[in-house]
Design brief:
About 65% of the residues lie in helices and about 0% in strands. By secondary structure, the protein is an all-alpha fold. Helix 4 runs antiparallel to helix 5. It is flat.
């Protein structure tokens, strides 16, 4: 028992500053990671705003090609500033030790990125409907390790929802495969 705290019961990461090994370091590294992420995203949002400013904000019959990127850039800038301010004002509270993903989480991120690359490269071959169904099923089965019944339900509903939104409601022509799907 250390200063009224049972150190054998309470994990190190939940001990007050100075009571556990590495506690302050974990909080500082999380704060630092949020600050770095906030500034990187703020710079990226500045670039998005700058580039969208060069595009027409309005077209003949409505918003132009620069309208959406401009407002998304502004939103991203606001959220980045909120992240920076939140990290700057954050009091030292127990957080997880590593602010960045561990090996297992990093492998999942890589699996998603590889799946996304395959999804993009097969879009013209398989078409939107089949390719999106397979991609969502891959994410649910391989990455999230969900049950087959739930995977099929989510894959069908996601694909159908996206098809209805883009093809039916917005009238956007989606890529089709050789069978017209």
């Amino acid at each position: 028992m250390e200063g009224g705290i049972h150190t054998d019961i309470v994990p190190e990461e939940f001990l007050p500053a100075g009571r556990g090994k590495g506690f302050g370091k974990a909080v500082r590294s999380m704060k630092r990671a949020d600050l770095i992420t906030g500034f990187v995203l703020l710079a990226l949002s500045g670039y998005v705003i700058w580039e969208s400013w060069m595009m027409p904000a309005s077209g003949t019959f409505g918003p132009g090609s620069g309208f959406l990127p401009l407002w998304l850039g502004i939103l991203m800038a606001l959220l980045s500033v909120m992240l920076i301010v939140g990290a700057w004002l954050r009091r030292p509270v127990p957080e997880e030790k590593a602010p960045f993903p561990g090996r297992k989480a990093l492998l999942r991120v890589i699996a998603v990125m590889v799946g996304l690359g395959v999804y993009i490269s097969l879009m013209e071959v398989l078409g939107f409907v089949l390719n999106t169904f397979l991609f969502v099923a891959y994410l649910m089965l391989a990455v999230e390790r969900e049950k087959m019944k739930l995977t099929m339900l989510v894959a069908v509903l996601t694909t159908a929802g996206l098809y209805i939104i883009f093809q039916v409601l917005l009238g956007i022509t989606l890529p089709k495969n050789m069978f017209g799907l």
